[in-house]
């Protein structure tokens, strides 16, 4: 499964990068395959392990922000691995044709 999620601290002003970094740090330390871009962090693994990381990432931001917003999108495909890479490679292959 791949989960793309965004954790946003509310009530802390416009500069939220250091709060977001707290969440991304949790994801990177999890050891699961992941990618972060300007809008979302994607993480790949089994349901329970991915959701645990998301929960801990939210908790990291929640420690310093009075309110937290979470946006989450999941691609649940049993027996598929390395989706973070293979899905992008498929699109790139079609673009190259």
From TrEMBL:
Which parts of the chain are coiled coil? Answer: none
User: Locate the Thiamine-binding protein domain: which residues?
Assistant: 3-92
Signal sequence, start to end: none
Q: Tell me which domain of life the UniProt entry assigns to the organism this sequence originates from.
A: Bacteria
Provide a GO CC annotation, any one: cytosol
Q: Which InterPro entries match?
A: MTH1187/YkoF-like (IPR029756), Thiamine_BP (IPR002767), UPF0045_domain (IPR051614)
**Which PANTHER family does the protein's record reference?**
UPF0045 PROTEIN ECM15
For this chain, the family text in UniProt reads: Belongs to the UPF0045 family.
Listed name of the protein: Thiamine-binding protein domain-containing protein
Write down the species. Streptomyces swartbergensis
